[in-house]
Automatic annotation (TrEMBL):
Listed CDD domains: S1_YloQ_GTPase, YjeQ_EngC
Key words, A-Z: Cytoplasm, GTP-binding, Hydrolase, Metal-binding, Nucleotide-binding, Ribosome biogenesis, RNA-binding, rRNA-binding, Zinc
Function: One of several proteins that assist in the late maturation steps of the functional core of the 30S ribosomal subunit. Helps release RbfA from mature subunits. May play a role in the assembly of ribosomal proteins into the subunit. Circularly permuted GTPase that catalyzes slow GTP hydrolysis, GTPase activity is stimulated by the 30S ribosomal subunit.
Protein name from the UniProt record: Small ribosomal subunit biogenesis GTPase RsgA
Gene: rsgA
């Protein structure tokens, strides 16, 4: 029988595929091994189910992807949830913007979650949230301690394939457990079953979460910009687009050019100064990476 399903994890050459709620353990068919292919968690695949063993099958094709993150490796995310604390540690515009660029470059839908609202004055949290809401990024302000914002976030994520990204200590674990109590225990149990510690995760896996799946994404706190070309960076700042028509040169780096619509917008506070500062910092980082790779 030929059917299709979602790859929820892989291990030692086996792929575990969810087919309408039935888990099928699969290997890759021979003709696919002879071609160059990159099968990863989150892929939707076509498979042939073993007529003698309904829980075994062979993957015959990878269906077209909607999006793809290279690091951590996962495909077809419905949402990337960027999680950052308002305080303890203090909110970092640069880290937030780097993670947003990661999503923009991979064309992954994204929303921002600001945690520890109970420790922050309303004026401060709204000031930060307003920067991103003005651009068009959906932004939730939550407190796992008081429950503020949790119900709304749970409803927004219901039925989605979601990844949470952000540095350690920002309250990701508390937020996840507030949305679905025990979800992190499930993560640990799965890691144990396939004989690897939960703190040495190498492969992304999808865990049942809130009617959909949570991508257990290793190393998502370390934002690496090395695969992005400096020339591609402006496109990752969506608020720049409406002002680029006023730039004298195309393409424009929005740095040293004498006539630049984006720089004018920054001076007029139509582009947040924090966003432009992040842009300049990240652009310099990308240029340094490119120069280093040429050596």
């Amino acid at each position: 029988m030929v059917t299709s399903g979602l790859v929820v994890r892989s291990y030692s050459g086996y792929y575990y595929v969810d087919c309408a709620g039935v888990m099928i353990t699969c290997k890759v068919k021979g003709h696919m091994k002879q071609k160059r292919f990159s099968l990863c968690t989150g892929d939707r695949v076509q498979l042939e189910v073993n007529p003698d063993k309904a829980d075994e099958g062979m993957i015959t094709a990878i269906l077209p992807r909607r999006n793809y993150l290279e690091r951590p490796t996962v495909a077809n995310l419905d949402l990337l949830v960027i999680t950052l604390a308002l305080v303890q540690p203090d909110f970092s515009f640069l880290i937030a913007d780097k993670l947003l660029i990661l999503a923009e470059a991979a064309t992954v839908p994204v929303l921002l979650v600001l945690t520890k609202a109970d420790l922050t004055a309303e004026e401060q949290r709204e000031r930060i949230a307003a920067v991103y809401r003005k651009i068009g990024y959906e932004t939730f302000v939550i407190s796992s301690k008081t429950g503020e914002g949790i119900d709304a976030l749970r409803k927004r994520l219901e039925g989605k394939v979601t990844a949470f990204g952000g540095p350690s200590g920002v309250g990701k674990s508390s937020a996840l457990n507030a949305i679905q109590p025990g979800v992190l225990r499930t993560t640990g149990e799965i890691s144990t079953k396939i004989s690897r510690g939960k703190h040495t995760t190498r492969y992304t896996e999808l865990i049942p979460f809130n009617g959909g799946y949570l991508a257990d994404t290793p190393g998502f706190g370390n934002v690496l910009m090395e695969n992005l070309e400096p020339e591609a960076l402006p496109a990752c700042f969506p608020e720049f687009r409406q002002f680029e028509a006023a730039c004298k040169f195309s393409p424009c780096s929005h740095t040293h050019e004498p006539v630049c619509g984006v720089k004018d917008a920054v001076r007029e506070n139509r582009v947040a100064p924090s966003r432009y500062a992040s842009y300049l910092s990240i652009l310099e980082e990308l240029k340094e990476n490119k120069a280093r790779n040429r050596r």
